[in-house]
Design a protein that fits this description.
two-stranded parallel ribbon; mainly alpha; 5 helices; 188 residues
């Protein structure tokens, strides 16, 4: 059986009727050509795949053609250091849906920074942001508390600067999607 990490992803699934998805893919790929990394539409779960013998470029594979999934995966990539970007999924283990309260708290702790960046990306693209607690079948998350933590981190980034790749992509998103109004976050 061939490992997922050995083959380039094809992105065969449609864009879920979101005409901005191909624009987003092209924007990312042209903005970060110097990083030999491509944004790739996936058919299932998101994953980061470093370049290898089978694929000469790194891949940020996002789920099911969802614009928000792409922005979320890009945010993780913007935070990952050089050594992490040489490992599948940056060397992290993902605890899937169905987490208990302790696992959910750990999940939320590591998701604050990427979701703060995702929020900025989302607004730069003229869309509405909503935090993701990603635990439909587990312990009930404190969505309001998590949203406040993400907002606080975003405020810190606004005051002190975003990571370099994130700042670069925020500007690219603004330039591409500037005809849209920013509409804030949703806590729903």
């Amino acid at each position: 059986m061939t490992s997922l990490s050995q083959q380039p992803q094809t992105g065969a699934k449609q864009f879920d009727n979101d005409t901005d998805v191909p624009v987003l893919i092209a924007l990312f790929n042209s903005t970060f050509v110097d990083f030999n990394t491509r944004l790739v539409l996936g058919n299932d779960e998101p994953v980061y795949l470093p370049a290898n013998e089978a694929c000469s470029y790194h891949q940020i594979v996002f789920a099911h053609g969802f614009f928000s999934s792409a922005l979320h995966e890009i945010a993780h990539w913007c935070i990952a250091g050089e050594a992490r970007r040489l490992q599948e999924d940056y060397g992290y283990w993902y605890c899937p849906d169905g987490r208990d309260a302790k696992q959910q708290a750990s999940f939320e702790k590591v998701e604050i920074k990427p979701q703060a960046i995702e929020w900025a990306f989302t607004e730069a693209a003229g869309r509405r942001f909503q935090v993701s607690t990603d635990n439909l079948n587990g312990a009930e998350p404190d969505r309001d508390g998590f949203t406040k933590n993400v907002a606080q981190q975003r405020s810190l980034y606004e005051q002190h600067g975003y990571p370099k790749r994130a700042a670069r992509f925020i500007e690219a998103l603004k330039a591409t999607f500037s005809n849209r109004t920013q509409i804030g976050a949703s806590v729903a």
